[in-house]
Amino acid sequence: TKQSLAIWRKRMESKYRSGPAKMVKYIIRHNWINYAHIKHTGQPFNETTIVKDGKGQITGTLGEMAFGRWLTDLDIDFEYCADDSMNFDFKVGEYRIDVKTKKTHGAPRPDYMVRIPKSQERQQCDMYVFAYATDHEIYLLGFASKSEFWSSLGHSVKAGDKTESHTEKVDARFAYIRDLNDMQRLDLMLSDF
């Protein structure tokens, strides 16, 4: 029943919710790590791949596994497309969703940044879900529609620009975690399907 589902969702929120920005935190499962290593090619993903030995693929796959777990926990039907698409990782109803995951040390803060290389601006997806991965945890930080990220939410930077304590390696667009839409809103959007 709808009431039972609402109670279950509240329990899941309290179980996985982390911090004031309503991020979702998952412990990295051993089978996720195994799957990520199987998918790892040892090669750069594309011309703007920052980690040239392809190890970023492991981090990216872990973010995808956490997002898939989140969808499953909320009983939202989805199709995992990452193996067949260069543009998006998931299809939920009519939404094409790409998960962007960054390797980090420690829990994220609202003033931390997420970024997407400018070369991916023409990527054929509808929205981005952003994640941070530590050695043991994945944080689903929030989401943005593709059009919102590239038009009003994000800030453009050029390769070589200094942004706080980071020197940009490629032309990109960044946003602060605090400016992302929270995962609870995404739950409501996707649950309509």
Describe this structure in words.
This protein is of the alpha+beta class. Helix content is 31%, strand content 28%. β4 and β5 form a beta hairpin. α2 crosses α3 (56-73). The longest helix has 18 residues, at 56-73. The chain is globular.
Q: Strand fraction band? A: 25-35%
Strand order of the largest sheet: 1-2-8-7-5-4-3
Tally of helical runs: 5
Radius of gyration: 16 Å
Shape: globular
Please render the helix and strand layout as text:
Elements: H1 2-16, E1 17-18, E2 23-27, H2 30-39, H3 56-73, E3 79-80, E4 90-92, E5 95-103, E6 113-117, E7 127-133, E8 137-145, H4 146-153, E9 155-157, E10 162-163, E11 166-167, E12 172-176, H5 183-190
What's the short story on this structure?
The chain has helices at 2-16, 30-39, 56-73, 146-153, 183-190, and strands at 17-18, 23-27, 79-80, 90-92, 95-103, 113-117, 127-133, 137-145, 155-157, 162-163, 166-167, 172-176. The chain has 193 residues and is α+β, with helices and mostly antiparallel strands.
